[in-house]
Input
Amino acid sequence: ARPRVGYFYSGKKNADLFGESLRKLRVRDYKSVPTVIEETSSAYDAVVTLFTEDVGTLIVVRSGQLVGVVSRKDLLKVAIGGNDIHKVPVSLVMTRTPNVVTVDVDASLYDAAVLMMRHEVDSLPVVRDSGNEVVGRVSKTTITRAFVELGQYRDV
Amino acid sequence: ARPRVGYFYSGKKNADLFGESLRKLRVRDYKSVPTVIEETSSAYDAVVTLFTEDVGTLIVVRSGQLVGVVSRKDLLKVAIGGNDIHKVPVSLVMTRTPNVVTVDVDASLYDAAVLMMRHEVDSLPVVRDSGNEVVGRVSKTTITRAFVELGQYRDV
Output
């Protein structure tokens, strides 16, 4: 049961605390390991890696630096296009920097969610100092996991 | 600035209100229009529909009733398998009921998020009376949208 003093708060006020708590969650604490592939790989290699890692998007790197991202959607398009996906390099299929939306490791998870909604992407490479050094990834799965965690708080 | 009375609440207590507010969100209020395809369609038709509707998963129906779901992942698998996807029916590729995880329209969005995490799926058909009548869909995008909305509450 909530203490009576709680009635001084309106529903709106609770919602404010809510938003504040949510915005405190950090990308740093929720990011997962980045799933990367070298830009010299074939589209076929990318498909295999997508399945073995069971992710929706791969981060494409050159010497460990972000050069692009490639999604199930990109690969499905090339696979049905009648191309030999063993011969098509992933670099031809990927979304290329600077068109890749990234999030800084010091950003909030809320910022990451806003970026994914605004740019209509399912995941973001997590970078350091807004550069091209990839240190993780966040996705709509990450947000869903955080949402479940927040919903688990119960009244005492 | 928060009223001093707020200090009677510990951080934990705020978190409790948080969880309570989150669990009040309903599937009914957040669901989107279901993107469906007839089970007699080809895998190729399914790919085209995925692109035109820009969704990750299609709900497969017979006479308006749920019979399965088919994802980008399912279609990517068949596309690289060397099959003629114009000839493969979507019913051969889909996940079939009763193996499809659904959520009732009267459930909470929290329940939907828990189901997606537990069963490792990206979206759920929304059904009425836990039956096979499809009335919508929720996905990790739906959860991300709700997360952004909750984070927008500001202190007054």
In short: The longest helix of chain B spans residues 11-23. Chain B has seven helices and seven strands.
